[in-house]
Amino acid sequence: MKENIGAAIDARSDEYIDIARYIGEHPELGNEEWLASERLMQLLIANGFDMQNPVLDLSTAFIASYRSSKPGPTVAFLCEYDALPDLGHACGHHLICTMSAAAAIGLKSVIDEVGGTIRVYGTPAEETNGAKVPMSAAGLFDDVDFALMAHPYHAYEKSGSSLAMDAVQFEYFGKAAHAAANPDEGVNALDAVLLLFHAVNSLRQQLQSHTRIHGIITDGGKAANIIPEYAAAQFYIRSGNRPYTDGVVQKVLRAAEGAALQTGCRLKITNYEYSYDELLTNNPLSETFSSNLISLGVKDSDIQSDKDNGSLDLGNVSRRCPTIHPYVKIMEQKYLLHTPEFRDMAMTDHAFSSMLLAAKALAYTAYDVMASPDLLSAVRAEFERAVEQPSHA
């Protein structure tokens, strides 16, 4: 069966590389991925998948499905295809979406014998307002038995954890006045923002080490001789689990309210991006993926274990169904994500070859779970334990 899956992926390898290169050469920001989503949908429709588009009023989101005549589990392969401002595909999403689509098509070559349903989820805007958040909230993963994706990187890493995250905006409204002629008549909104930053810095000593708070001033006034009547800041507040993150957010909110009281400003608080939960990696799924990498020629010693200090909208999916997010090596040099160097290396022949290897590993992993009731039961049992236990960093 796996030989048939691998052969099916190899048979279309040139097409997959062409699609990945095209998306890489035409970067599009989140929720504007018209070209990328269209190429992926055309590919999946041409290979016998039913298509739903748009999804939840998201024009560049889709769900492609193939159901075999024989009943069985449902697997989800996840596609990300948004690019970064000014950097293009410096996170390798052109590889992620293509490897997931290729894995789904490869698995389809045997699914009628195995039994089950294959879905490919096109999930826009992972870098900002990740579509997996509203998709999860709407229950679109609730009937999925397990979800798979892999991320390009400079090393092989097992699926680990990520940080829960809230994106919070603080806007202060004061009163403008001439800063020299009549400063006593002003209410300085920028002072409130600066007080907020000082208060956040004072909190850091009392926070657990897995916490991250980082922010910017998005508006600090218009001219030095005018007391700012409006100022704003945006913060990412992260930690190793959702309950602790919620508590830290409350501390920051109190600090923001204190700054408003001290300066006499009016405060408005909003979330400017979706909130992400931490990733709950499913260990039986993760070990199965690593075993398949090894079967494809990757050395066991080359597969590392690490903790992801970023935040993923996939975390929200992992609370709805068993999920993994491993990293796959696409380059020999160590270049970091979200850099021009990584972007350039992600467009090389070596990167495209690694993309195809990852597609096979994803498809093989799906086959293993769908063909083994015992493994599927282990995956489900691990998931149920994870979501029922209190979150710990």
Automatic annotation (TrEMBL):
Gene3D superfamilies noted in UniProt: 3.30.70.360, Zn peptidases
Gene Ontology cellular-component terms listed: cytoplasm
GO molecular function: dipeptidase activity; para-aminobenzoyl-glutamate hydrolase activity
Biological process annotations from GO: folic acid catabolic process
Domain Peptidase M20 dimerisation: 171-241
InterPro entries found in the cross-reference section: Amidohydrolase, Bact_exopeptidase_dim_dom, Peptidase_M20, Peptidase_M20/M20A_hydrolases, Peptidase_M20_dimer, Xaa-Arg_dipeptidase
Signal peptide start and end residues: none
Domain of life: Bacteria
NCBIfam families: amidohydrolases
Family of this protein: Belongs to the peptidase M20A family.
Record protein name field: Peptidase M20 domain-containing protein 2
